[in-house]
Amino acid sequence: MESKKILIKNGTLITMDPKLGELMSGDLLIVDGRIVDVAHSIPPVDGAETIDASNFLVLPGLVDTHRHTWQSLFRNIASDWSLSHYFTGLHGTISELYTAQDTYAGNLLGTLEALNSGITTMLDWCHNLNSPEHTDAAVDAHFKAGARVVFGHGGGHQHYQVVSHEDHPVEDVRRLRKGRLSSDDGLVTLCLAARGNQFATMDVTVRDWQLAEELDLRISCHFGDGEWGRNRPIAALAEKGMLHNRLTCVHCNSLADDELQMMADAGCTASVAPDIELQMGHGWPATGRLIKAGIKPSLSIDVCSSNGGHLFGTMRAALGTQRGFDNEAARNEGKACVDEMETTCRDVLEFATIRGAEACGLGSKVGSLTPGKLADVILVRTDTFEMIPMNNPIAQFVYNGHPGLVDSVIVNGKFVKRDGKLVGVSFDEIRELAYRSRDGIVSRAKGKNGLKLGGSWLPKPYHAA
Question: Which stretch is the leader sequence (predicted)?
Fold first, then answer.
């Protein structure tokens, strides 16, 4: 087979590799899907496609560690909802109405949206798997889109009538693990998106952890989102020896400080979604408290039925909120403000890249422009009014970036977006698919719980048993 080589020349390289740092003008060589060299200058390479990146930032692809991708069909319907409205609206109304084809449509739309914004790796926290057919359709969409996806099997709507005594659909997970997602080296891999002891009983949670151990799967689980998190769920798991380094704790807002330390001591990773957490009432984002405990968090979109599906807004929400906390702490010490920024633009970009890769179990494979890693790379335009003159590349990416600046996206050494357009994707076909599924769900709902489009629907708050 002929070797595929791509030589990117003269770009502003933000490698996120502490040994390589930033190169204001540098080159990157990709061979057969891997990064093989990063240098100030790489000589011409026989057979390589050469790309002049003089007007581009070159970065590792971004990593989203927790997204309920199926909800993209109902984007922004929940933008004025609290968490209790969300449980009624999404889990108590919409989720059960999805056909397998609707799950395919939502996952395809949401994954393409992520790729378009420079997210090359995504953990799809899929809790809309109402049957094995829904599961297959969800996975089909990820293979079709071409992103690197960790597919988090999260059960279906029937598992989110909390607090639930219903077991996870274990045979469906086993089927995937023995079949199409048996390898941890594929573009789409598997993890267990468990409800945990906030949303299910401890007996169910123990069985979920046993399933993950049986199938050698990482676990992603919600903790500390709102009042549910005040019952010390992490401490309860710690007492049973159930914290470990293959567990990602999502949100963490209302967890106690000692519970965050328990997570750190066990090697857990964390995922925060600051804009959703602030909106829906989860509690103040735990970013700074996690860092203090020894965990640098990753970032997540969470419910794309509420916010935009790109990490630029998430990075800015994380940064702005934590800087507010830091400055308030300084004022409480009698200072006017912090002496220097305790949370930097580099920090949040690290959360969105290498820390995200680690939370997905992919830290040795992606997350930085390190020779030997898989070639997940994005090129971001700098020849625009938002980006000139280039004075501080990382800060300008974090504060000024948006999906429209993402010119090209490479996953596994293959272009999936180029010259500002997704490769091999018909926007008209995706739009038709999305509207057909969305309209079908609304029609089948017949006004259940007051469902309507346009922005005025406010479901009644959900009250857990």
Answer: none
pLDDT tens-place string over residues 35-83: 999 999 999 999 999 999 999 999 999 999 999 999 999 999 999 999 9
Q: Which of 251, 326, 259 is nearest to 288 (CA)?
A: 326
Q: Which amino acid is at 454?
A: G
C-alpha of 24 from chain center: 28
Residue 464 pLDDT > 80, yes or no?
no
pLDDT of residue 156: 86
For residue range 295-346, what is the model confidence (pLDDT) as tens digits? 999 999 999 999 999 999 999 999 999 999 999 999 999 999 999 999 999 9
Phi, psi of 9 (to 5 degrees): -115, 145
Q: How many Cβ atoms from other residues are within 10 Å of residue 430's Cβ?
A: 16
Contact 138, 126 (CB under 8 A): yes
Nearest to 107 by CA among 133, 79, 144, 78: 144
For each of the domains in the chain, give its residue range(s) and CATH number, in order of start.
Answer: 5-60+369-422 (2.30.40.10), 62-359 (3.20.20.140)
Longest dimension (CA), the chain: 67
Task: Say if residues 67 and 124 touch (Cβ distance below 8 Å).
Answer: yes
Query: Which regions of 53-145 does DSSP assign to beta strands (E)?
Result: 56-60, 62-67, 119-126
In angstroms, the CA 110 to CA 434 distance is 10
Q: What is the rounded average pLDDT of the residues 379-386? A: 97
Confidence band, pLDDT 50/70/90 cuts, at residue 1: very low
Does residue 163 have a cis bond before it (omega within 30 degrees)?
yes
pTM to 2 decimal places: 0.97
Q: Residue 463's pLDDT is what?
A: 73
Report how far residue 68's alpha carbon sits from residue 305's, in angstroms, rounded to the nearest whole number.
9
371, with CB counted inside 10 A (0-12, 13-18, 19+), is middle
Average pLDDT, the chain: 96
How many other CB atoms sit within 10 Å of the CB of residue 32? 13
Q: Could you give the angle at the alpha carbon of 144 between the alpha carbons of 140 and 145, nearest 5°?
A: 120
For the chain, give the percent of residues with pLDDT over 90.
Answer: 95
Note the Cα 202 to chain centre separation in Å: 27
Pairing of strands 56-60, 119-126: unpaired
306, two tokens = 């509420």
CA-based radius of gyration for the chain: 22
Are the CB atoms for 356 and 64 separated by under 8 Å? yes
